[in-house]
Amino acid sequence: MSRPSILPMLGLGCAVAMAAIAPAQARSVHVTGQFATEHGATTTPGGGVTAWLNPSTNLVTYTMKWTGLSGKVTAIHFHGPAGAGQEADVLAPVGGPYVSPLRGAVLLSSEQARALMAGQVYVNLHTDAYPNGEARAQLSAQSR
């Protein structure tokens, strides 16, 4: 009488157990937004924000490009939570010097990262002529 080998069953059991305890590999979330005027600015800004959110660490790496502003950028901030046309507090300031293209990273809290993935975060560019913000890019997660 032939006895079934226990090795294949043992191997399958180990594979299932390893899959259950292995950390999930989080995929980065691609986020984009295009700059448009805000606060009554009469300029025609161009460019936008391309960013990647690492959902495991909440680190956002970004590239921002802009054109068509009234002058030099004096400050840049991530704001939220707020939908299009709404305003919100600063979530994270962006360090200078403010030269396009600008690359960097900001660390968000888990709550802020959820707001980013829900389209509730925007970036605005401040200038001397528009100290409250001349251009705004509402960020939205892109599907893969």
Write structural notes for this entry.
The structure is a single chain. The protein is an alpha+beta fold and 144 residues long. The chain has one domain. The protein is built from two helices and nine strands; from the N terminus they run H-E-E-E-E-E-E-E-H-E-E. Strands 1, 2, 3, 4, 5, 6, 7, 8 and 9 form a nine-stranded antiparallel beta sheet that branches. The longest helix has 15 residues, at 7-21. It is globular, with a radius of gyration of 22 Å. Keywords: Signal. Pfam families: CHRD. Residues 23-144 form the CHRD domain.
Fraction of helical residues: 10-25%
Number of strands: 9
The largest β sheet comes out as: 9 strands, antiparallel
Low-confidence stretches: 7-24
By DSSP (H or I, 4+ residues per run), the number of helices equals: 2
Overall mean pLDDT: 87
* End-to-end CA span: 54 Å
* Shape type: globular
Q: What is the chain-wise order of helices and strands?
A: HEEEEEEEHEE
Number of domains: 1
The fraction of residues in strands falls at 35-45%
Q: How does the helix and strand content classify structurally? A: alpha+beta
